[in-house]
Amino acid sequence: MLGKLLGYASALLAWIGGVALVLMMLHIAADVVARYVFNAPLHGTVEIVSAYYMVAVVFLPLAMIERANGHIVVELATQHFPRRIQDALIGVVALLSAAYFGAFAWQTGGDAIKKYEIGEQALGTVAVTVWPTRFFLPIGCGMIALVLVYKAVRLFRGDRKVLQPHVAREAIE
């Protein structure tokens, strides 16, 4: 049940990141057309792209990428270890990574609350309210931390299913 919940939540965040990617593409294309065809660029494009779209695209899909085992892996020495030792090492690294992402989520969550309280804005050609995007970091990092802990627990219990690349297409059981 917990695995399915994590699967659906990480899929939702990845979907939101994908929508942000499409919106970014459309926004930039509209700005280019407006700039070169109508000689009237869309004001705030740089601020909105860098503060909203890029942050969503980078941080929200992290948990889904972890579920799909899509992060970079270097196995120069460990590929020759017995399977149980490999699983134990992956589990330990998952827990260490979860601790890092959890601490990062905690810190960025506190920062997001502070930015919300002051109503942070980015000043460029126009003022753009950016405090809402500060919450993408703790949400994305918190979700990957939960997925990593779940993965480690499953590995320590001897379940290698979490290491299969197809897991991202199905809800984790």
TrEMBL record:
Keywords: Cell inner membrane, Cell membrane, Membrane, Transmembrane, Transmembrane helix, Transport. The chain crosses the membrane at residues 12-30, 50-68, 88-106, 135-153. InterPro entries: DctQ, TRAP_DctQ. Pfam families: DctQ (PF04290). It comes from the Bacteria. GO terms for cellular component: plasma membrane. It is a multi-pass membrane protein. One of its GO terms (biological process) is C4-dicarboxylate transport. It is found in: Cell inner membrane. The keyword Metal-binding does not apply. Residues 24-157 form the Tripartite ATP-independent periplasmic transporters DctQ component domain. The complex comprises the extracytoplasmic solute receptor protein and the two transmembrane proteins. Part of the tripartite ATP-independent periplasmic (TRAP) transport system. Belongs to the TRAP transporter small permease family. This is TRAP transporter small permease protein. It comes from Rhodopseudomonas pentothenatexigens.
